[in-house]
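Before we proceed, please read the two lines closing this message. Report back on whether the structure tokens fit the sequence:
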Amino acid sequence: MKKKNTTGKSFRLIYKVTLLSMMSAIIATHTFGQNSMQGDEKMMKKEGSDLMYKAPESPEDISPLLTGETIPMITLKDVSGKDFELHQAVATKPTILVFYRGGWCPYCSKQLAALQELMPELEKMGYQLIAISTDSPEGLQASATEKLLGYTLLSDADLNASKQFGLAFKAPKAYWEMLPKTTGGMDQELLLPVPSVFILDKSGKIHYEYINPDFKQRLSTELLKAVTQTLYKEL
């Protein structure tokens, strides 16, 4: 993953909304800066063939992939515990990729339900919807059953994907007892991802992203619909 040049001493989120047509099709983009990090304070560094990730203590200090970059090749687990090659799935059609914390999070549950309501319209436009969380495959299955979710749920219980996307940070102490249980013991570093939404073309290139360190704030389905309608011709 590329190292990010950072500016400023605080995380900034610039959220711009533009009226694009008489139908009020809206596209939102944002940029942000991260705290400067030097030497061993870099979150990602290359040592031989191994990638070592140093998780920041605060969600405001993550260094995520940016619009225009291509997502890494990652293997996750599906609800059945089988390997799922993310890049192979993305290659089939434009993708809305969602990172959420887990089915135990009420804000995530609300987001998952809203995405389910929007899914038929997204599929009609030609998109597929994939959601990734720290839950174990068993936890994913419980969420899919309870919430009647019809889109793909993937387990990032060890947060390898969250690390490679630059979204992982050290979870607050209040979560330390819970995370080993909900991840099936895989989250040994006690990390969480910053909830995020990426819109990808079939090559895995990021055309839009919404990343907010405040886990209570999620991209609205109305805005997501408007953005996907606007972007699809580019994908």
